[in-house]
Amino acid sequence: MKKIVILNGSPRLEGNTVQMIREFRRGAEEAGAEVTVFDLKRMDIKTCLGCCRGGKNPDSPCVQKDDMERIYPAYEQADVLVLASPMYYWSVTAILKAAFDRLFAVAEKDPGLRNPRKDAVLLMASEGDTEANFKPVSDYYHALLSHLRWNNLGEVNCGGVMNVGDISGHPKLADCYRLGLSVGKD
Ligand SMILES: Cc1cc2nc3c(=O)[nH]c(=O)nc-3n(C[C@H](O)[C@H](O)[C@H](O)COP(=O)(O)O)c2cc1C
Fold first, then answer.
1. How many domains are there within the chain?
2. How many CB atoms within 10 Å of residue 122?
3. What is the average pLDDT value for the chain, to the nearest integer?
4. Torsion of CA 9, 13, 19, 20, to 10 degrees
5. Which range of residues forms the domain containing residue 70?
């Protein structure tokens, strides 16, 4: 059974990103996957200290002790990591970036600082609705995956949504569902 971890970087827990996550999850679970969603907004996640002293305790790899302790074991077991975020200034939200930076502590368990291999998905809601608007984030995502040597399984950018509820009935929700269906298969 595929194990999928979704990091939800939206602070609006009934917002547009969450609706994308719900549809992706529905598809993935229908396909038989086990899906875990972390609502980062509800969690205590500190920013990386850059101390490079992590990885010593395999069960608690970061020197900072906070809610990343819940994410680490799920991340290590996951086949797929989903980055789900509203676009904030042509990037993911600060809380998602903070959580992602802290995953470096897992790479520090390896003497060669190798990251565990994962497949990845990007789900993003944004007000702007052009390819040009999404390009900086998409470029960032691909650069990140190339560095980590992870495999991209798909990106959905739902543009043209600003306020909570704007995404309701949007055709991109069907894309999220279909992507979940395909990613969730063994
Ligand atoms: C601080 C902030 C920065 C934003 N920056 C961008 C941006 O750079 N480009 C864009 O298209 N939308 C931007 N938006 C709009 C959000 O991406 C949009 O409202 C999105 O639907 C929010 O998703 P949510 O409902 O999951 O919170 C920004 C919104 C906020 C609050």
1. 1
2. 23
3. 98
4. 0
5. 3-184
